[in-house]
């Protein structure tokens, strides 16, 4: 991709990863729906109203990119992947992957994704949601979709039926077909900013998570490169004006996390190997390492630095953010940088342990800091 082509695609100095804390009325409506007290149309109407308010909030703090807060989702991946034909989402085994504060009673165990029949996309999944969002704002509407690697990582070959897919490459080919179709339909609806959320890339940093890959019978480095190819194949047919951002974090559920360590171990194959337009990278604390791995970033690729944490309410100091951007600019030209929170505020429906007031203050800090750096 030429640098000129990259400049014509959506890119914002102040961005955010996507999910926002759900308001009380959305929780109440979801519970009523699950009890059978209201129908899907009523639930959606409540979600619509909440999304309108969330968009107003994003516009008020000065964001030029808005999302629907992922208010219609249980978590960052299940509502998308669960609508693919041939896939089952099952209760998690007793193998808690997320690290947490030992003094906290909050725990999170990710569920299992299992492919039991030919994988298909029977209908568009997020087009209706995008059309609603785009219709209530004059800002750029961003859609977030889970990485296709979520269909495979936890279990590898074991979670893909050998009866249905004796050759696992046929499974990956069907995944690609489904994702290409979804991206094409989003583009046809006018979407020009699609974000792929892939916390699983960071698992290849963690010895604990690499051990899971080995236990599945795979070599971590080979599995990592297979996922790079998988995403490249999924986005290969996107339009020339569509920006693909890839978000990499270290897990984010109820303020918990799953992996730690800098990007050095995965930087070269990830930053140099993926054919996306920009990255949104976690950089909110020491768990994410330093900026040195950014030296592997191609010259035409941009980076959104996730310097503001979504896990804790304490507000970062602007001077600290300014200094950290200067440090990152030693490896990536400052004109190719932007800033954001390190992840969403509610990757799962319950949300992180943070208040709405803190959430909006952090988003405003991102906007104000970006304006100071890139006036």
What labels would you give this structure?
375 residues, alpha/beta, TIM Barrel, two-stranded parallel sheet, 11 helices, 36% helix, disordered N terminus
Helix segment count?
Answer: 11
Please write the CATH class name.
Alpha Beta
Low-confidence stretches: 1-6, 98-107
CATH topology: TIM Barrel
The whole-number mean of residue pLDDT values reads 92
| Sheet with the most strands: spatial strand order | 5-6-7-8-9-10
How many strands appear in the DSSP assignment? Answer: 10
Strand content: 5-15%
Order of helices and strands: HHHEHEEHEEHEHHEHEEHEH
Shape: globular
Could you walk me through the main structural features you see in this protein, from its secondary elements to its overall organization?
The protein is α/β, with parallel strands linked by helices and 375 residues long. The protein has helices at 3-7, 24-34, 40-60, 78-81, 127-134, 168-188, 207-215, 220-235, 264-273, 318-328, 356-373, and strands spanning 65-66, 85-90, 112-120, 140-141, 143-146, 193-197, 243-248, 278-282, 302-308, 337-341. It has one domain (3-373): TIM Barrel. The chain contains eleven helices and ten strands. The strands form three sheets. It has a six-stranded parallel β-sheet with strand order 5-6-7-8-9-10. Strands 1-4 form a two-stranded parallel sheet. Strand 5, helix 6 (168-188) and strand 6 (193-197) form a beta-alpha-beta unit. Helix 2 packs antiparallel against helix 3 and helix 8 (220-235) packs parallel to helix 9.
